[in-house]
Amino acid sequence: MKQPAHKGKPLPKRLQKVIHLTHPNLTGIWLDSGDVMRLLHCSKRTLQTLRNCGLPYYDVHQRLYLYKLDEI
Question: What are the DSSP calls for the chain, one per residue?
């Protein structure tokens, strides 16, 4: 299968700080929900279902979910 051309985008410094404080060993390319929906060609509700079924994600703050590209 061909690798997607989408590589994600760097997190804002504020979020990098939050992630580092809560998970200091987490590095790599991070995607937000919009990136994952575009990558998987799915809706917001489908993404919620995928999270409920075991798609790994990190709840950074309230409704801000981040996903590691390696885990998708």
Answer: -PPPS----PPPHHHHHHHHHH-TT--S-EEEHHHHHHHHT--HHHHHHHHHTT---EEEETTEEEEEGGG-
Phi, then psi, of 34 in degrees rounded to 5: -60, -40
The CATH class that applies to domain 13-71 reads: mainly alpha
The closest of 1, 10, 25, 2 to 69, measured between CA atoms, is 10
CA 4 from chain centre, in angstroms, equals: 15
Q: Tell if the pTM clears 0.85, that is, is over it.
A: no
pLDDT one-digit tens code per residue, 22-35: 555 566 777 889 98
Cβ–Cβ under 8 Å, residues 33 and 58: no
